[in-house]
Design a protein that fits this description.
Strand order of the largest sheet of chain B: 1-2-3-4-5
Shape of chain B: globular
Strand order of the largest sheet of chain A: 1-2
Distance between the termini of chain B: 74 Å
Oligomer: heterodimer
Distance between the termini of chain A: 66 Å
Order of helices and strands of chain B: HHHHEEEEEHH
Number of strands of chain B: 5
Largest interface: A-B, 41 and 52 residues
Shape of chain A: globular
Number of strands of chain A: 2
Structural class of chain A: mainly alpha
Largest sheet of chain A: 2 strands, antiparallel
Number of helices of chain B: 6
Number of helices of chain A: 13
Radius of gyration of chain A: 21 Å
Strand content of chain A: under 5%
Helix content of chain A: 55-70%
Order of helices and strands of chain A: HHHHHHHEEHHHHHH
């Protein structure tokens, strides 16, 4: 049984709306930074997640990467991504982006047929690249800020807006209804698990490097998460830099060189 | 008066065209600057050929040539720059250079030996943003944007944005967090940077 199966979609939407109101009302502590009033709790969960990652997730991801050949792993990912098409389509439409909705629809039909049930991704080669959308991003395009930063157990970095978005996306996915109605809730969990291991297997070196070079790994991940989400909402384009206020500087400050 | 008008109009038009032409020329120059520097950076980072220390040294050369380290270090310290004493600023500047070399080498090493393709540029406030892609075989290209400032007749990079994530903003957020957990004292950041530069040697 899935714990969410007892909750009606309407109740979820209502609570999502509440989240949104809360998110709008939460001020950020610095311009461009995500508010983190739960930082002590978040840091605790972050440390626990790291421990689980080091002992279980990363070793499994490494085995998966080392023993399953690249093309097979790509096919696993293509297949899972193709299944996400209805969720992406719903969000394309909610963002009033009909061009993107067209691309998502064409991709689904091409990859399901020519791509053998989604195992391959010929659509990308035909000039129809995938663009990920979710309800958190949709809210972002409506002008809803992230609210506060959250670190979820196992799932990792998120925000009030994006966590609420995940719940809504759950109800956009026809496969979840199928799994619920036929008492196959374990399929949903299995799917999320494989997706997580696959994603982790692709970031082993990157994350190790970031951890090695940071002086505050938690703050770095928080910043990366926030920037990535902002960028996804803008669908690309470089962020603007905060203004550098030079008014209080002396002439010496302005010309001081690094070599002094 | 009436006769002056067409003349003035012509003057304004001529000025507008030449300003436009100058701006376009400047943008083209900036694109060229990134194309050459970015390519060299990716070649310098080729993993197999050198030791890590050698790679870092080569990259350090490129960094001081192509980046405005002074401005970057100021941005990264954000509003805490004001609170730092003269001595703290001087030490910070030195430690920051080591820190930024290590982070850039680590984060850009993934793309070593790939080719950089400049795809366009646009003006942004006082900077030019140059859009580029790191082209990889059989995988989707990686989007890299370079923020270039034209100060004192010289082009200098002040930020590298990989897939929408700015190196500068990440460092600023990280530094702010370290300083905040040290009770708002810049010394807390300096201590961490000293430690970091210590285990790098």
């Amino acid at each position: 049984m899935n714990p969410l199966s007892k909750v009606s979609p309407r109740a979820v939407l209502a609570s999502a709306a509440l989240f949104v109101v809360a998110a709008c009302a939460t001020p950020g502590n610095e311009p461009g930074q995500i508010a983190d009033p739960l930082e002590p709790v978040n840091r605790y969960i972050f440390a626990a997640n790291l421990a689980v990652d080091t002992t279980v997730i990363e070793p499994v991801a490494t085995l998966y990467r080392d023993f399953v050949p690249d093309p097979a792993r790509d096919s696993v990912r293509n297949f899972l991504r193709n299944l996400e098409s209805p969720v992406i389509l719903a969000n394309d439409v909610l963002q009033h982006d009909l061009d993107a909705a067209g691309v998502t629809t064409k991709r689904f039909f091409i990859n399901t047929t020519l791509g053998v049930l989604g195992l391959f991704d010929p659509a990308t080669d035909m000039g129809l690249p995938r663009r990920d959308e979710d309800f958190g991003q949709t809210l972002g395009t409506y002008g809803v800020g992230p609210g506060i930063y959250l670190v979820l157990p196992i799932l990792g970095p998120s925000s009030l807006r994006d966590a609420a978005g995940n719940v809504v996306d759950y109800y956009f996915d026809p496969l979840n209804y199928y799994a619920d109605n036929t008492d196959r809730g374990h399929l949903t969990v299995l799917r999320a698990g494989i997706r997580g291991i696959d994603a982790r297997a692709r970031t082993i070196e990157t994350l190790d490097e970031i951890e090695r070079t940071s002086i505050d790994f938690y703050a770095t991940i928080r910043s990366l998460y926030h920037q990535r989400r902002q960028s996804d909402i803008r669908n690309g384009s470089a962020p603007s830099l905060p203004k550098l206020d030079l008014t209080g500087d002396t002439e010496e400050d302005r010309t001081a060189s690094l070599e002094d | 008066m009436m006769r002056l008008r067409p003349f003035l109009l012509a003057l304004v038009l001529a000025a507008a065209f030449s300003i436009n032409a100058v701006a376009q020329q400047a943008q083209a120059d900036t694109e060229k600057f990134i194309a050459s520097l970015g390519d060299r950076a990716l070649q310098v980072l080729v993993v197999d050929s050198q030791s890590e220390a050698e790679r870092e040294d080569a990259f350090r050369g490129l960094l001081s040539e192509g980046f405005d380290l002074r401005l970057i270090s100021r941005y990264a310290l954000g509003r805490y720059w004001r609170r730092a004493t003269k001595e703290q600023r001087a030490e910070y500047a030195k430690l920051f250079e080591d820190f930024i070399v290590e982070t850039y080498v680590a984060r850009l090493s993934e793309y070593s030996g790939e080719t950089l393709k400049v795809v366009g540029s646009r003006p942004d406030d006082q900077d030019t943003i140059v859009h580029s892609e790191i082209v990889r075989d059989g995988r989707p290209p990686i989007r890299v944007d370079w923020r270039v400032r034209n100060g004192d007749e010289q082009l200098k990079i002040i930020d590298v944005v990989v897939e929408g994530v700015s190196m500068l903003l990440t460092q600023r957020d990280e530094f702010a967090s370290v300083i905040q957990s040290a009770g708002g004292n810049v010394e807390g950041l300096l201590a961490r940077l000293r430690e970091k530069s210590g285990d790098g040697e």
